[in-house]
Amino acid sequence: MEEYARILNYAIPGFILLIAIEHGASYWMKVKINRLFDVISSLSSGITNVIKDILGLSIVIISYDWMVTHFALTVIESSVWLYVICFIGLDFAGYWSHRFSHTINIFWNRHIIHHSSEEFNMACALRQSVSEIFAVFTILFLPMALFGIPTKVLGVVAPLHLFAQFWYHTRLIGKMGWLEYIIVTPSHHRVHHAINPRYMDKNYGQIFIIWDKLFGTFQPELTDDAPVYGITRAAQTWNPWVINYQHLWLLIGDAWHTKSIWDKIRIWFMPTGWRPADVIDDYPVSSIKDPSTQIKYNTEGSTLFNVWTIMQLIITLGLMMFMFTNIGTLSPIQNILYGCMIFASVFAYTSLMDGSMWAIPAEVVKAIIAGFLLYQWNFQWYNLDTILYNGTMWVVSYMVVSWMLTFYFLYFDRPFASKLVWEELAK
Known about the structure:
The chain is an all-alpha fold. Helices cover 57% and strands 3% of the residues. The chain has helices at residues 2-29, 36-55, 64-71, 80-103, 105-108, 112-115, 142-146, 151-163, 186-193, 210-214, 240-257, 261-266, 277-280, 303-326, 332-354, 359-376, 384-387, 391-412, 422-426, and strands at residues 59-60, 134-135, 295-296, 299-300, 416-417, 420-421. The strands form three sheets. A two-stranded parallel sheet has the order 1-2. Helix 2 (36-55) packs parallel to helix 14 (303-326) and helix 14 (303-326) packs antiparallel against helix 15. It is globular, with a radius of gyration of 22 Å.
């Protein structure tokens, strides 16, 4: 946990730098790829995901270490090939877990956040799940366990494999010649994120595109069918917490409302999007039928609101990285409380971006947790004062100002909804 936190403290600034470079390139190329609130929502989703991972807030059904101990048939001698085989095995497992997440109702809930952005840019790559409570796809690592690949090798390769999936989330790179036949490229992944009928449920590969070609899920990007991004049941919110659980809430509602006992059971394992026949008419759910007429979710705020929202993101990132720096010296309960404070902060300011009153109770929760942590640390924000002059005062001031400005914006300068038609933005 501590090692991964240290890695993230280096990786996160790198990701943000690449997003900034992409934005600069898009400005120079005169291609609009970013919207302020969409980017903030994406980065905020990434914040919630990495904190969940660092805190270990998931239940592993079958651990990889257990499989290696019980099922290893051989042991590969330590060499570069050990890491190569691990990387290929991880990518093979990733293809299938990705495919299952798209094609089985209950598993779509753990992946929907990644596709929820109606833009396609490097920021959307950071939209990752917090709703994956049970890690069920570890079983797909069985082939690696049979080869006896040590857990510590997987621990080294897995972050590299994950980070290597970041770069191809961009519209600014065209087709890449012979590489299109080997690896997942931006063109391949644009297809994967599109809601165009011919592009749906294609190109599940994470690093190597060969798996899609082997298992019949490959689709090239076509010049006469420009990708339209998002999900067919549009999220209609900037709040990553709401997006993470929208699909699950729909499944729970359908399972409750259907009169068929069989449908109550099978709805969880049916193809993604399947609903019982007796709830479709009584409980309709809007969806995009024609991507070319897509209306993107959009809210706009005043200049002051936009500046404050950017500051909220920066401060939250700073508080998170401070947590990662000190995670080994904080008690488990303090780490969990600190993480929950950041969760509440993200919920609060992304709700505010929606103009939602839910921002107020979220601010209350954030303030209560922060106050309790201050009490635990004898009214010093841990060792922040040794790093930043009057650091505790700055944290307390931020909590107070955040509370006051939340009320101000909701009652006097609330963001307003506006519509953006895809065809207009595509020009």
